[in-house]
Amino acid sequence: MVSQSQIHELHFILVPLMAQSHLIPFTEMAKVLADHGVKVTIILTPLNAARFNTFLENAKASSLNIEFLSLCFPGQEV
Protein backbone atom coordinates (compact mmCIF):
# COMPACT_ATOMS: atom_id res chain seq x y z
CA MET A 1 0.00 0.00 0.00
CA VAL A 2 1.28 3.47 -0.89
CA SER A 3 1.16 6.09 1.84
CA GLN A 4 0.09 9.71 1.34
CA SER A 5 3.67 10.94 1.79
CA GLN A 6 4.86 8.60 -0.96
CA ILE A 7 2.14 9.84 -3.33
CA HIS A 8 3.35 13.41 -2.97
CA GLU A 9 6.83 12.28 -3.99
CA LEU A 10 5.67 10.77 -7.29
CA HIS A 11 6.47 12.70 -10.45
CA PHE A 12 5.14 11.53 -13.80
CA ILE A 13 6.86 12.64 -17.00
CA LEU A 14 4.54 12.29 -20.00
CA VAL A 15 5.96 12.40 -23.52
CA PRO A 16 3.17 12.25 -26.09
CA LEU A 17 3.98 11.44 -29.68
CA MET A 18 4.67 14.62 -31.59
CA ALA A 19 1.38 14.28 -33.49
CA GLN A 20 -1.17 16.93 -32.54
CA SER A 21 -3.88 14.44 -31.61
CA HIS A 22 -1.89 13.00 -28.70
CA LEU A 23 -1.52 16.15 -26.63
CA ILE A 24 -5.14 16.56 -25.51
CA PRO A 25 -5.54 12.98 -24.18
CA PHE A 26 -2.17 13.22 -22.43
CA THR A 27 -3.20 16.48 -20.81
CA GLU A 28 -6.45 14.92 -19.63
CA MET A 29 -4.48 11.99 -18.20
CA ALA A 30 -2.18 14.50 -16.46
CA LYS A 31 -5.21 16.16 -14.86
CA VAL A 32 -6.40 12.82 -13.48
CA LEU A 33 -2.95 12.00 -12.08
CA ALA A 34 -2.48 15.49 -10.61
CA ASP A 35 -5.95 15.33 -9.08
CA HIS A 36 -4.64 12.37 -7.07
CA GLY A 37 -1.82 14.49 -5.67
CA VAL A 38 1.13 13.68 -7.90
CA LYS A 39 3.27 16.08 -9.90
CA VAL A 40 3.05 15.75 -13.70
CA THR A 41 5.28 17.21 -16.41
CA ILE A 42 4.31 16.99 -20.07
CA ILE A 43 7.09 17.41 -22.62
CA LEU A 44 6.07 18.94 -25.93
CA THR A 45 7.50 20.80 -28.89
CA PRO A 46 7.28 24.59 -29.24
CA LEU A 47 5.03 24.16 -32.29
CA ASN A 48 2.54 22.01 -30.38
CA ALA A 49 2.69 24.43 -27.46
CA ALA A 50 1.75 27.28 -29.79
CA ARG A 51 -1.07 25.31 -31.44
CA PHE A 52 -2.63 24.32 -28.13
CA ASN A 53 -1.88 27.47 -26.16
CA THR A 54 -5.49 28.05 -25.03
CA PHE A 55 -5.94 24.42 -24.00
CA LEU A 56 -2.63 24.41 -22.12
CA GLU A 57 -3.48 27.66 -20.34
CA ASN A 58 -6.77 26.15 -19.16
CA ALA A 59 -4.90 23.14 -17.78
CA LYS A 60 -2.45 25.42 -15.97
CA ALA A 61 -5.32 27.46 -14.53
CA SER A 62 -6.84 24.32 -12.99
CA SER A 63 -4.47 24.79 -10.00
CA LEU A 64 -3.27 21.22 -10.36
CA ASN A 65 0.41 20.35 -10.17
CA ILE A 66 0.93 20.13 -13.95
CA GLU A 67 3.91 21.61 -15.77
CA PHE A 68 4.59 21.86 -19.48
CA LEU A 69 8.17 21.65 -20.69
CA SER A 70 8.78 22.78 -24.25
CA LEU A 71 11.83 21.20 -25.88
CA CYS A 72 13.16 21.86 -29.36
CA PHE A 73 13.73 18.65 -31.28
CA PRO A 74 16.49 18.97 -33.89
CA GLY A 75 14.43 17.47 -36.73
CA GLN A 76 16.00 19.55 -39.51
CA GLU A 77 19.52 18.98 -38.21
CA VAL A 78 19.05 15.23 -38.12
Would you write up a description of this structure?
- With 78 residues, the chain is α/β, with parallel strands linked by helices.
- It has one domain.
- Helices cover 40% and strands 19% of the residues.
- The chain has four helices and three strands.
- It has helices at 4-7, 23-35, 46-51, 53-60, and strands spanning 11-14, 39-44, 66-70.
- Strands 1-2-3 form a three-stranded parallel beta sheet.
- Strand 1 (11-14), helix 2 and strand 2 (39-44) form a beta-alpha-beta unit.
- The protein starts with a helix and ends in an 8-residue tail after the last strand.
- The mean pLDDT is 81.
Strand content: 15-25%
How many domains, as an integer?
1
Strand order, largest beta sheet? 1-2-3
Basic shape: globular
Topology pattern, helix = H, strand = E? HEHEHHE
Rg computed from alpha carbons, rounded to a whole number of angstroms: 14 Å
Low-confidence stretches: none
Task: Give me a quick take on this structure.
The chain has 78 residues and is of the alpha/beta class. It has one domain (4-70). It is built from four helices and three strands.
Summarize the SSE layout with pairings.
Layout: H1 4-7, E1 11-14, H2 23-35, E2 39-44, H3 46-51, H4 53-60, E3 66-70
Parallel strand pairs: 1-2, 2-3
Descriptive tags:
single chain, 78 residues, alpha/beta, three-stranded parallel beta sheet, 4 helices, 3 strands, 19% strand, globular
